Amino acid sequence: MARGSSDWFAQVLTVDNTGATSREAVEIQRREYHGIYSDEAGDALIEQEYFCPSRLRFSASIGASSSERQSRAAGSSMSR
Q1: Which residues in 8-20 are b (16+ Cβ under 10 Å) and which e?
Q2: What number of CA atoms fall less than 13 Å from residue 38's CA on the CB side?
Q3: What pTM was estimated for this model as a whole?
Q4: Which residue did the predictor score with more confidence, 69 or 17?
Q5: Contact, 72 vs 35, CB < 8 A?
Q6: What is the 3-state secondary structure (H, E, C) of 42-62?
Q7: Average model confidence (pLDDT) for the chain?
Q8: Please, what is the Cα angle at 68 between 65 and 69, to 5 degrees?
Q9: What is the dihedral of CA 33, 36, 42, 45, to 10 degrees?
Q10: Tens digit of each residue's pLDDT (9 = 90 or more) over 51-73
């Protein structure tokens, strides 16, 4: 919405634009994610966190099917 309106300001900056984190640190994080998740999921997380892809390619629940995520959501709302 912000990008299509003159009432808002939107800017997407990647780690390459800002220099806030070194490429070496990004690659260290990538290796850690590969070890925790999988290579594919680790790469998706790095893209999401450091390179601001135009559309998210990563599910919030790694390795869970849609029905598993729905089940978890239903269980957590029932326990409140």
Answers
A1: eeeeeeebeeeee
A2: 5
A3: 0.58
A4: 17
A5: no
A6: HHHHHHHHHCCCCCCCCCCCC
A7: 76
A8: 90
A9: -70
A10: 987 765 444 444 545 555 455 55
